[in-house]
Each structure stands twice: as structure tokens, then as C-alpha cells.
Specification:
By secondary structure, the protein is mainly alpha-helical. The protein is built from six helices and two strands, in the order αβααααβα.
């Protein structure tokens, strides 16, 4: 799925998965989920590359583990401006892991199906 709306739908599924598996993460309604997924996609496209670039030295020193913290920051930032609720920073990091894995799996599924045509 290369189009932006497709990515928003995948983000909706991934964010919902995080709310399903983590008690400390919740969202209010389908509209709230759509808005959170939309904002999450925009933040991932615009702000995350800057944060990743600026944190590259510490990410290298931690053998990439700091990238999980960056994902947690992105989730927390999304929660700050949407109806996504994240109780602790640990929940934000875990939600970032679940969202990342969900998006990776879903991208693989939809990319492989699109490639078969």
C-alpha cells in the first residue's frame, strides 16, 4: 500500500492492536482512531526522521535500542494531540513496538498480494 489513505488504514489497525494488547493504551471511538492514525502518519513522515537523525549517535551507542525510545516518543507525541491515551512511557514504548510490528506484518501481506497481479 503506497498511498497515504492506505497507510492511515494500516495505522488504524496497528493502533487498535496496541489498545487491544496493552491495558495502559486506549482510544475513544472510530473517529478518534482515524484521527490518531492520521496524525501518527504525519508525525512519522515529518518529525520522526528529524528525531532519528538527531539521536543517531545514541542509537549507535545502544546498538539500535534507543530507536525503541524514539518510537515511544512518537506515540507519546501523538497521544498528546489526539484522543489516544497512554498511561506510562513504558506503555508508549510497548505500543510503538506493537504498532511497528503490526505495520510491518500488514505491509508484507498487502505488498505481496499487490505484487501477484
Amino acid at each position: 500500500m503506497n498511498n497515504f489513505l492506505g497507510r492511515v488504514v494500516l495505522n488504524m489497525i496497528a493502533i487498535y492492536a496496541a489498545t487491544y494488547f496493552l491495558d495502559g493504551v486506549s482510544i475513544s471511538g472510530i473517529i478518534g482512531l482515524f484521527i490518531a492514525a492520521l496524525i501518527f502518519g504525519i508525525i512519522n513522515t515529518v518529525i520522526k526522521p528529524i528525531i532519528v537523525f538527531l539521536s543517531l549517535p545514541i542509537t549507535l551507542l545502544t546498538f539500535g535500542l534507543f530507536y525503541l525510545v524514539v518510537n515511544g516518543i512518537i506515540v507519546r507525541f501523538t497521544a498528546a494531540i489526539t484522543s489516544l491515551s497512554v498511561a506510562t512511557f513504558k506503555d508508549a514504548i510497548l505500543a510503538g513496538i506493537i504498532i511497528g510490528l503490526s505495520n510491518w506484518i500488514l505491509q508484507g501481506i498487502f505488498t505481496s498480494k499487490e505484487g501477484r497481479h
